[in-house]
Design brief:
single chain; 142 residues; alpha+beta; 22% helix
Length: 142
């Protein structure tokens, strides 16, 4: 089972999303996220992946509920609400076509096919709207 971590940066009522350039999901929108590296905590991984994909430095604030995808070997998705500390428009252009700030209303009204995984997007939006987030300490031993 692999662990994917990422950040939801909410700034001025908009969320930063990335448009992917990987072959399997080319042109699809998603939240900045990626694999946890060896000897890296989930928090370090989320901050690093967000920086690599967006050029943004962030501070983790809250944790979203864990999502589990049971396809193939299974994937655990862990997202964190993050405050934007610094935005630099340089990012990994091998993986990302563009970054885009979108309002929650815009995201909710977009065609589901525009997203890499609309169920993940829907879950994140619902968690934000229902304020069903956790303190970071919930994962202190993860």
């Amino acid at each position: 089972m692999e662990i994917i971590v990422g950040c939801i940066i909410l700034n001025d009522d908009k969320i930063l999303m990335v448009r992917e350039s990987k072959k399997k999901c080319y042109g699809k929108l998603s939240f900045p996220a990626g694999h946890v590296e060896k000897n890296e905590t989930i928090f370090e991984g989320a901050i690093r992946e967000t920086f690599e994909e967006t050029g943004c430095k962030v501070k983790l604030k809250k944790a979203f509920p864990i999502l589990v995808h049971n396809d193939n070997d299974g994937v655990i998705l862990m997202h964190f609400l993050a405050d934007l500390i610094e935005e630099d428009p340089t990012y990994n252009t091998d993986e990302i076509l563009e970054t885009k700030w979108l309002s929650i209303e815009k995201i909710k009204n977009m065609d589901k096919e525009e997203f890499r995984s609309y169920p993940v997007v829907e879950n994140i939006i619902n968690s934000l709207e229902n304020n069903s987030l956790y303190e970071l300490e919930i994962y202190k031993n993860f």
